Batch of 3 targets.
Target 1
Amino acid sequence: MAKVLEEVLNRKFSRRDFLKGSVAATAAVAGLGFVGKESTLASAESVAPSEGAAVADAAEGGKWVAAPCWHNCGGKCLVRAYVKDGVIVRQGTDNFNTDDGVNRQQRACLRGYSQQYQARGLDRLKYPMKRKNWTPGDPHPELRGIDEWERISWDEAATYIHDEVERINGTYGDNSILTLGGEANSLLNKLNINYVNSWTTSSWGTWYAPGPLGWGDGCNYYDCNNDRLDFLNCDYVVAFGYNPAWAALGNATNYAVEWKKAGVKFIIFDPIYTDSASILDAKWVPIRPGTDMAAMMAMAYVMLEEDKDGSLIDWDFLDRCCLGQDKDHMPADVKSEENFFDYLRGEYDGVAKTPEWAEAITGISADTLREVARILGKDNNVAILSSWASARTYDTDQLPQLATCLGAMGGHIGKSGNCVGPTAWNHTNNFGPRLVKVGSSGPNGAVGGTGKATMVCDTQVWNAVFGEPFNPTNIFNDINGAGPNGWKDAIAGYDLTKRVDYITAPIKMIWTTNKAKLTTCEGAKKGVEAFRSVEFVVAQGHFLTASNKYADIVLPITTNWEREGSYVWEGYINRDILLINRKVVEPFYEAKSDAEAMMTIGEKFGLSPEMWGTVSAKQLLFNSVATSTVIKEDGKTWENLVSITEDDIKEWGVEGEPQEGRIPISKYMEDGIYRVDRHVGDNFGYIDKKEFREDPEANPIGTASGKIEFANQTWADILNSQGFSEEPYSAIPKYRAPTQGYEDTFVDGKLDGEKTEFPLQCINPHYQRRSHSIFDNIPWLREAMHNPVYLSKKDAADRGIAEGDTVKISSKYGETLRHAYVTARLMPGVVGLPHGPWIRIDEATGIDQSGSENYITGNVARGLGCSGYNTLNVEVSKYDGEAIPEDVEIPQTILFE
Ligand SMILES: Nc1nc2c(c(=O)[nH]1)N[C@H]1C(S)=C(S)[C@@H](COP(=O)(O)OP(=O)(O)OC[C@H]3O[C@@H](n4cnc5c(=O)[nH]c(N)nc54)[C@H](O)[C@@H]3O)O[C@H]1N2
Ligand SMILES: Nc1nc2c(c(=O)[nH]1)N[C@H]1C(S)=C(S)[C@@H](COP(=O)(O)OP(=O)(O)OC[C@H]3O[C@@H](n4cnc5c(=O)[nH]c(N)nc54)[C@H](O)[C@@H]3O)O[C@H]1N2
Ligand SMILES: [Mo]
């Protein structure tokens, strides 16, 4: 190994250097920075670490390689690595583009600047390995997670896996292998083995399958809002759960700050007074988790009651564009005559959905609900936004439908300054069809087999391992992404008049790949038992993560920085940017890509590597770059993104034709980023459902009737067919007390009665230290962000808890420990346990030490099978055992130095 590599790998983490390198990045993360160009450049070049002269010297004579962060945080920012002698010696970011109010650089955050430790961390997996006490035929499953490891060769690993797959599939047959993640599926498919794979509503919550509800007007389903520059025309943004400053890194917060500067007022319903609320000077409306539907209904009720001849409600819009709101506007396909307005008035259940009714549920005063309801009236320009978080709750399957109805009542759909839809992840605050598009790589010549996946929902997956019956359809997967009208074909194969037939599977092997399910899937405590219950577990990845740790055989996999370049899937990035993955360094020790790992194992079964494709990765990349296109000034026509010369083709060593384009291919590959610049009044604007509003008959939306459906029979039928909820859904949205919601903190759900032993509600903010579970092991980030549990002052005082105390957070499913962070910015009754730490179980007590939120969530299947993580009842108490250390004090897991 080159001396310089050793130096870099061995350099010790230093707090002082970290702080030095990260100040500018922090400003970008918090969205605080309208940093001038000079200081921006300084931040772009500020190397993450520096060990003084040694590294500075080493840096001369290397080269910068631009490559984006590859993680799933929604940021997708440009990171650059300075590489010398095959070693990453420092990092940079986007300093190619200008940075002003409207057009921002795609700058890295603290995590982006830590990427070198993802690629080159000492705790990366270096070699294939097996558990010491695992041998075929004598597996000691009880030692999974606590055994020691021994290094083996790729050949040995491939032989073991081959033998076990043959044995298990041969003995137990179809569906005896469960894959978590997708990387092993290509092999099982080619081997004609039928297996089980899991699906989840993870991110979207109940916004998961919006086709039948009529969103996605010609673009992706999360793009049912207006262009970000049109938001300058709003009077108000009313948001349900909204914290881009933490959960949408990149430029989302900067965009919202521009709106604020233009005079837009923000009203944010959130259990936390977030950094976003603070930056945007929002009116904070504290709301209990899982109760947004009650708040929305009460505001709809007020609009209906207080409307004087159209002072609040846009009756013309309702009449022309909507069905199901009242008895004179009913869709043809409804099975009941119930309409939404009569439901609000209490005609069917005797309960009027008044602000007083909602106050008892949501914790929001009736006066505040009235005040916001008036703001939602038709004379204001309002964008109603909902993060996915409020929909990552049980029994809120009709929330997206209800949010649309609320917006429709004020006519906030289809015109400038008005829209209704979700906002989260990479599409936070930046909506509309793409302005620069990835081209096609063309076919790669891979050959498939007949092996098929039976799907199991994450809410049922651990129970399925224990042989319990589960819903094997993937109807929501089929609809998800099928587009505004494609859902009709996607559900054509399903009989929605009856409950789907549940099945069991003889699962005896788990193969976990590019997922971290023992951290990110609900019910992780049962998940550990499931891992320990089967006959064989294989894992492949970058680190000994919580999931990988419970395997028998672990395979080291390359990161994106060690692979031939590829495009970043455009669905991951803002509409105005394209980024490209480049190879930065050679594979780490014996790491192989997932595809190479599958080929190596496949060879033991007699499969040839060509079955995974015959076209080189370089050619595939070239093809997709060459066919990438960018919109012209007119906003209508498109041109090639890159120009290509004969010399370029020679230099790449690929087949291709020269072409004209916007920028030379060499510049694009060097920058790693292309941005379409925007200005107010350009031709790239977008108003969602504009044509529909103008002429709904000529431009129907994707619902069964083509109109906005306050009564949506298709959606109710789909939900009812799944068998996840006993109580049938009606076509109109109705309030149901969520499982593990506020009502469940009371004995028998009686709001004026006694509290249960789990009187608090727990939510899982997406946390700056990590992208889900990724980066949890990075010492720099551990030092910068402590991952405490957030408690309100009142709840802490009631329990005698002080800042910094080790506390135990318990639910009916499990227990975990954290240091307390006591704050007035959290609504009393609510606990904030950040998403994503790697579980670390004390085997003696069964208590998790890491603050894992999923170690204490349960396996609850309701409605569409939504992962309702943000509905969870807990208690918090001072821990009487030993205090836990700071995460940064825990040594890294370094195997085989
Ligand atoms: N309680 C609770 N649970 C949640 C959430 C919540 O809010 N609360 N949020 C949910 C959401 S929104 C999401 S999106 C999910 C995310 O759930 P996951 O997708 O499981 O989360 P990640 O941490 O991104 O896990 C990806 C894993 O794959 C590994 N990996 C990355 N690239 C490769 C590769 O090329 N090959 C291989 N073999 N491995 C690779 C990474 O190292 C990491 O271990 O979590 C969900 N879980
Ligand atoms: N730093 C970081 N950023 C991330 C990720 C990450 O892991 N780390 N993950 C990315 C991914 S894949 C996704 S899907 C997105 C998710 O993005 P979001 O869904 O927006 O993320 P959250 O942080 O879970 O929640 C946002 C806000 O909703 C509030 N909230 C929670 N429950 C409720 C509720 O019932 N009602 C209301 N009104 N508010 C509620 C929370 O307090 C929080 O302030 O984040 C992305 N960004
Ligand atoms: Mo997500």
Note: The two ends are 13 Å apart (CA to CA).
Target 2
Amino acid sequence: MDYSILLDAAPAAADAAKTAIDRIKDSDPVAITFFIGYMAMFASAVFFFVERGSVDGKWKLSLLVSGLITGIAAVHYYYMRDFYLTQGDSPTAFRYVDWTLTVPLMCVEFYLLTKPFGAKGSTLFKLIIASLLMLVAGYLGEAVYKDNNVLWGWISTVGYLYIVYEVFAGDVAKLASSSNSPALGRAMFLLKIFITLGWSIYPIGYMLLDGNLLANVDISIDLIYNLADAINKIGFGLVVYSVAVAESGKK
Ligand SMILES: *C/C=C(C)/C=C/C=C(C)/C=C/C1=C(C)CCCC1(C)C
């Protein structure tokens, strides 16, 4: 048995471990946001699961979905944090696996908000298809056809704009305007803010890719994505939580 390969590998492994510790020691902001993201997602998931007990019937499902979104993200942040620390590179595949699970769940969340006012399953279906187009195209541009990331970014944007359209003028908007609950009205207003401002942080991050509009700006794409995830997953979860509490008459 030839053990020399192990001896060769040992210093490399030690190096990788050292860089991980060095990154934290050097207060690498990206590494720190992966840590904070992990803990914040985890804590939010616990919060949403536990708070299910304090809201009325139909809102329990909404809080369960919020808990799943942040819980799934917590698991991915655990791996992304590790990947970033040891490889010093963007965990693009983990990132997109996470989004592919959590973005459709966010669409379920929008659907559940408008369901009491007659939202149809077909609306949910359209939102999920649009979000998948957005994410698959984004992944192809970011990981597979990097040289053509601008083109794939535009294709992805078509999916994104369709979701914006649904929320502002399509089915989701029509239903929300037919409700007379002030709490739901407020939630729908905030939903629009999250979809237009909160979600637009992602394409801005994407523009940092080589050859894209902001390629010369010296910011880590992960810093932008981590910030956006915290705002959108935890922030929107809290919006749903506040409607749920208000509608449960337990303010
Ligand atoms: C929890 C994760 C969320 C809410 C992720 C949302 C992601 C987007 C809205 C991504 C959008 C993109 C574009 C509109 C164009 C460029 C490629 C993407 C995938 C970054």
Note: Residues 12 and 18 are 10 Å apart (CA to CA).
Target 3
Amino acid sequence: MRHLGVLALFLFLSLIWGQTANGDDGRPTCRRCDLHHACNCSYSGFTRVPMVTDQALSLDLSFNNITMVTQDDLMGHSRLTLLDLHANGLAEIHPSAFDSLWSLEELDLSDNQLTVLNPKWFNKLELLQHLNLLNNPYSFLGSPSLFLGLSELRRLMFGGPDLKELRREDLSGVTHLEELTVNANNLDRYDSGTFGDIWPLGRVTLSLHGPFLTNPALAAAVLNDVCYPETRLTLSDLHLAHYVSVQPFKDSINMIRYLSLRNVSLSDEACVSMLALLDGVPLSSLSIVGLTLTGEGRWVTANRTDLRSMDEFFASDVTILDILKFAMVSELQYLLQYQKKLSIINAKLFLLSCYLTKMMVNTLYLDVSDNLLTDLTLTYMLCDSEETLQELRVLNISGNLLKSLSTLSRLVTKLTKLTQLDVSRTSYNSMPSSCSWPSTLRYLNISRAKLTIVTPCLPKSLEVLDLSYNDLKEFVLTMPILRELHLSGNKFLRLPAGGPYPNLQTLTIQSNTLNAFSLSDLQSYRRLENLEAGHNKFVCSCEFITFLHSQLTGSGDVKITDKHQTYVCDSPLYLQGEAVSQVNLSIIQCQPVLFVSVSCGVALLLGILVAGLLWRCHAFWFLKMTWAWLKAKRSSQRRRRQRNTEGTDPLLSFDAFVSYSEQDASWVENFLVPEMEEPSDSDSENPTSPLTLCLHKRDFLPGHWIMDNIMSAIERSRRTVFVLSENFVQSDWCRYELDFSHFWLFEAGGDTAILILLEPLSKDDVPKRFCKLRKLMSSTTYLEWPQEEERRPEFWRSLRNALRGDNEQEN
Ligand SMILES: *[C@@H]1O[C@H](CO)[C@@H](O)[C@H](O)[C@H]1NC(C)=O
Ligand SMILES: *[C@@H]1O[C@H](CO)[C@@H](O)[C@H](O)[C@H]1NC(C)=O
Ligand SMILES: *[C@@H]1O[C@H](CO)[C@@H](O)[C@H](O)[C@H]1NC(C)=O
Ligand SMILES: *[C@@H]1O[C@H](CO)[C@@H](O)[C@H](O)[C@H]1NC(C)=O
Ligand SMILES: *[C@@H]1O[C@H](CO)[C@@H](O)[C@H](O)[C@H]1NC(C)=O
Ligand SMILES: *[C@@H]1O[C@H](CO)[C@@H](O)[C@H](O)[C@H]1NC(C)=O
Ligand SMILES: *[C@@H]1O[C@H](CO)[C@@H](O)[C@H](O)[C@H]1NC(C)=O
């Protein structure tokens, strides 16, 4: 018993061991690798680096709880090109943990708990191109430089809330970068020139919140080192409150062409100082995303700021803290008159004055989407019937509070160079029956409005028309040069006919209520190449499925470009939710008529075949015979029972029942009967008593069923004589008789059959199917009717003896 207990414990332990320690030394295993050996083991709660196939090319371990990478954890991964350890709480990495990763090109250690960075980590990573060390609690990079051997490094990200100092030699080894991102919000110390050796620099993103606020000199030093005309500079998290806080730009602003600010707050004072700095600089693109204006918009120096070089101004997500006091309108005109491309998006803008737009003589592109413009303020902005924005090519007023398409069309008609108009996400709910548009208009986006019908208001000059996410059921307009038509998210029941769009190449009609479409539908479009029609309510008929399968496999001229999984059956019910590409309908479902007719045909053919076969095998004959025999047997039994109950003896009234064929009747009547029944006393010394024969012709009771007659004849006769001849074997009757007699043989248990061969007949002459007769012929001796007269008495004697034999014994 104790042994058993120990065994159980052992088994239990080994089970536990087997579950947790599927690796060498208790390391978990991750098998989430795809065909391209990309292993995604993120979000798996690993606390150690899991075992992964050596074949892995990329390994994503982000969002786990791996706090440590040991020397052996990544051993053997010499093929790995990408290792992502982002967000793990990683605190410790063995100095040679990455030593075997010779092929590594991308390493992400961001958002961890690394307090010290060790140059030894990167010693062997000569091919490393992207390195992300952001947001770890180290306060300095350390020397010697981490990056000395990394000559291929092109993207470098480091820093975090704890980064305090950057020293001159910290970045030695870094020569040129496509992208540099430094989070230095709390930087205290920066040695001038630390970034200065890196050139060229493609894109620089700096978070310098603290330095801009408290140490402008430091911020200026950093900016000076990264500003080159070809470098795109992004500064984020700036709080520009005073004159001082914009001074870091003072020296470098002349070098900057592309400036982008993210998450910036700006006071009036800072703005005025900034405008003063921007006066006449070669800045060509200024982009501000996430701008908080804390002042009242009193930018008095604006009329002195020359922004002639600025081609593009982009502002989005603008918040004005004190919107009631804010009054910047008149100053804006000076700032916005030069840009070719002007975007003020999501800025709660409710008015741009006509006065302003009249000054925007250079503007080709104006995007004021996601603001609070109404039909009225739009009328004002576009100067009603007066000329304005004469150079404008693109106007984007999407996401505003616009309701009247006729107002819009009236206003934009005079923009004689307008080619693109985006009025999506507006409240247009009806369309006048006719409108005027600039003849140059090629692109019109009225998606996500509330249109229920379209009318010839839409211009025929369009090449791209987006009407998606409205309430349309129909689209029948002639658009001779239309290339792209977007009708997704409406209520179309079928594809619009292609005739009116001879040049259409792209049609999107997803998320409607299309039941199906067919090849002829597609063929009505002469030049259609791309179709997107997923997320509809497809009725998965056989025709549609076959058609779509061929279309999805790309055999048609039209490519289906959206995801194939989005083509889902809506009906019939048993296919609801199934992706069309996964449905295989059987021929029964698809061609019921064909199926039924073919199967009926096959069944008929089979029937005929079987019947033929049966006929050839004489099955019917056997059946008939069996049936008759069964019936006759029953009545014979009945008779016997009757006799038994009546107590009468089984009367044998005949000596022999003679079974013969009609053709042999003459022989029976002329020879057999006279000889047996009225024996001539030629042989007087041995007088023969007459034998009684039963002949069906003579002794059968008329009116009884013949089978019964035969049966009872056989019953009442001691013997059965078969007169065999060619004729006999051809007669059906004989067969029955033969068979009955055969059964009788079995039942009586005696040797009651006597065969007479009228003509020489060998067993082989008897057809095979008369197997019983054949058997009888081989087991019973038979008498042959001699052709020679002198041998006949001998024959008769033998026959008589045979007929009498048993009788004598019985007596
Ligand atoms: C790994 O999967 C997560 C979701 O589980 C996904 O967010 C991440 O992008 C994937 N990583 C890669 C490299 O595909
Ligand atoms: C992993 O870390 C997350 C948050 O860092 C924590 O909520 C979770 O409990 C940790 N899981 C394990 C298994 O340690
Ligand atoms: C924006 O910058 C401020 C500091 O000026 C910072 O506190 C805040 O977290 C930043 N917001 C975002 C979304 O980055
Ligand atoms: C700018 O506007 C102020 C008044 O607001 C005016 O005194 C000054 O002359 C203007 N300067 C230019 C260059 O127009
Ligand atoms: C108009 O603005 C919206 C939102 O900012 C944008 O999605 C769309 O692409 C713009 N349209 C054009 C034609 O640039
Ligand atoms: C039309 O505007 C919507 C919403 O602004 C945008 O998503 C869509 O891409 C635009 N359509 C085209 C064809 O540019
Ligand atoms: C239909 O056939 C495809 C391959 O031809 C197969 O992948 C799919 O599983 C099949 N779908 C069903 C429901 O049998």
Note: Residues 398, 422, 424-425, 445, 447-448, 464, 466, 486 surround 2-acetamido-2-deoxy-beta-D-glucopyranose (ligand 6) (CB under 6 Å).
